[in-house]
């Protein structure tokens, strides 16, 4: 049976299993001698298998046949949905891949939709970053995955984890807020992911420089600033973030219609598909002095009147 190596690290080894239907990813997790940790992991794995959402990577039961070299029956194995375009980090660093503002709106919406679903399941991911988001299918659908050990909202103070740069600098958990502060842990990382998608250089945190002189990106700027606010009380909720995404989507659709461009596509430059050419992006700089100015302004004003969150963090 075929095993295609995808990576190896402190967590263990990962392979693609192309002969399975559906295709899967198999992760062999390095085990410890801590029995309690092992039992807790098995229990939380069951929780992961119960997660079913279009923007969350599926976890599967072990296949009935598993005859692979180096794999033993007592190994701790995870089986997950295979996403053909690999991680978002891989996608945004691929110089042969071109995507548009419409794609940014789509991916942002899908990421926050996944977080909204996790909130409904009382789960905090605690490590939202491009490497843990995956892109799948002809429509380049974004899916949140690589959960590690799942946490409910009551345990994040005890089990603080994450990746520097995407992990909030402090945790302020207030039970009187109904656990809302706990869910905002993931919002912080998600905000930086949005910026990474825009500038395609993970780690660049210069928000003002990125959005300077681009009125059509005002809602996107507010989204990033609102999500990455270090004060938990002023950070956007997932519902607020999705409201911003809705406005971004309206603006993107209108721009696409004006320039007769495809709404959502991220395709290779070799001609297999359609995409926003760089010259089109330059057109956007002057777009608000041409025929799309008034309609886009109306959409932005409509979004501003309906969005919630801390107004002090918003673009002028």
UniProtKB/TrEMBL annotation:
The reply on keyword ATP-binding is yes
Q: Which GO terms describe its molecular function?
A: ATP binding; protein serine/threonine kinase activity
What family is it from?
A: Belongs to the protein kinase superfamily. Ser/Thr protein kinase family. GCN2 subfamily.
Keyword Transmembrane helix part of the UniProt annotation: no
Q: Which CDD domains match?
A: PKc
What Pfam families is this protein classified in? Answer: Pkinase
Q: State the protein's name.
A: Protein kinase domain-containing protein
Q: Which InterPro entries match?
A: CC_SR_Kinase, Kinase-like_dom_sf, Prot_kinase_dom, Protein_kinase_ATP_BS, Ser/Thr_kinase_AS
Concerning SUPFAM superfamilies, the annotation shows:
Protein kinase-like (PK-like) (SSF56112)
Q: Where is the Protein kinase domain?
A: 1-264
Question: Keywords for this entry?
Answer: ATP-binding, Kinase, Nucleotide-binding, Serine/threonine-protein kinase, Transferase
Any Gene Ontology CC annotation: cytoplasm
**Which amino acids does the record list as binding ATP?**
27
Q: Which organism is it from?
A: Mesorhabditis spiculigera
